[in-house]
Design a protein that fits this description.
Rossmann fold, 7-stranded parallel sheet, 4-stranded mixed sheet
């Protein structure tokens, strides 16, 4: 169980909710990182008194140094600063909630320092799953999932007799704000429309990923690495209420699911307190108030990102990294108003057609694929 932790991406949605849990449980916060949000980082420094923080943007780091000059907190900058926080000596656990591919190198730094890893950065495993899992095995590091779906699967797998008893994983998806819409209807949707998630409060990038259902495709790849299953053994089901967070089916056709209100503090706390359970800051689930739970097959023709991810993980090698980076670029371009909503999947598909093939890869290979995929999407 965690006693002291570092939080990477502490000013974002998952990061701030992680600090809610740290506040409740009385954890020592050793290090914090953020991209550029100086105001929120200053407030966190003054409340939690971390020894070290890092801002990715150099200008933000310089500004923060001036603001917190009266404290004992050391301010670092850039990617190297984030990795230094991931290795911080006093922390036994690193919670990585950095958005996107930027989380890969800090994840590897934390594993190399033999920290327990609470992972909310799914792109780490999508882009570099082979590297991460091999490094974790070599260093004897536990990876505990923070994503609500993978936390649910992890919880449902507790007490299983053996891997052979597992038949399939059932990943649930909210369906996002555009469930039931046709391609024609999606041609003119706006960024504001895509950011109206029906159930969850999340950052902009992941909310758009939920709207395209790319998020569920990335989670499929993440599940393959985390739970050592084949892609064909991961089923995706749309569940509009976001109460059943995912489930597992065993060979006797028993299905075990984890249920709870849609609040990320439940899986965050479980990752930090595992294997113990404690009182949660989240309200109690009342099934009688919910009334009913519904489930639907995804519309794979309209929401093509799911099958793009399934194709990528089936091909293996650098294909998942290429799809992930292509999506990050296309997602950002959509949020800036440069392309339409349906263009996200179309551009990712183009990258998947021409991505480099390499069964065994290095970190440098992943970073080069990331650069190539982003440039390709931007040039289409």
């Amino acid at each position: 169980m965690t006693k002291s932790l570092s939080i990477l991406g502490s000013t974002g949605s998952i990061g701030t909710q992680s600090l809610d849990v740290a506040r409740l449980r009385g954890y020592n916060v050793e290090a914090l990182t953020a991209y550029s949000d100086v105001a929120h980082m200053e407030a966190q420094i003054r409340e939690f008194h971390p020894k070290t923080v890092a801002m990715v943007e150099e200008k933000a780091a310089a500004d923060l140094k001036v603001r917190v000059a009266d404290t004992n907190t050391k301010v670092l900058s850039g990617k190297d600063g984030v990795c230094a926080c991931a290795r911080a000596d006093g922390a036994d656990t690193v919670l990585n909630s950095v958005v996107g591919m930027a989380g890969l190198e800090p994840t590897l730094a934390a594993i190399d320092a033999k920290k327990k890893l609470a992972l909310a950065n799914k792109e780490t495993l999508v882009a570099g799953g082979q590297l991460v899992m091999e490094a974790a095995k070599k260093n004897g590091v536990s990876i505990l999932p923070v994503d609500s779906e993978h936390s649910a699967i992890f919880q449902a797998l507790q007490g299983r007799p053996a891997n052979a008893a597992l038949k399939k994983i059932i990943l649930t998806a909210s369906g996002g704000p555009f469930f039931g819409k046709t391609k024609k209807e999606l041609e003119k949707v706006t960024v504001a429309d895509a950011l109206k998630h029906p159930n969850w409060e999340m950052g902009a990038k992941i909310t758009v990923d939920s709207a395209t259902m790319m998020n569920k495709g990335l989670e499929l790849i993440e599940a393959v690495w985390l739970f050592s299953v084949r892609p064909q053994d991961v089923q995706i089901v749309v569940h509009r209420e976001s109460i059943v967070h995912s489930a597992v089916e065993y060979t006797d056709n028993s299905v075990i699911a984890q249920l709870g209100l849609p609040d990320m503090r439940i899986p965050i706390q479980y990752a930090l307190t595992y294997p113990e359970r404690f009182e949660s800051p989240v309200g109690e689930l009342s099934l009688s108030e919910i009334g009913k739970l519904t489930f639907f097959e995804p519309d794979y023709d309209t929401f093509q990102c799911i099958n793009l991810c399934r194709t990528a993980i089936n091909k293996g090698g650098l294909f998942p990294a290429a799809v992930n980076s292509a999506n990050e670029q296309a997602n950002a371009m959509f949020r800036r108003g440069e392309i339409g909503f349906l263009d996200i999947a179309a551009r990712v598909a183009k990258v998947l057609e021409t991505a480099p093939q390499k069964e065994r890869y290095t970190l440098e290979d992943v970073l080069e694929t990331d650069r190539w995929a982003r440039e390709t999407v931007a040039s289409l």
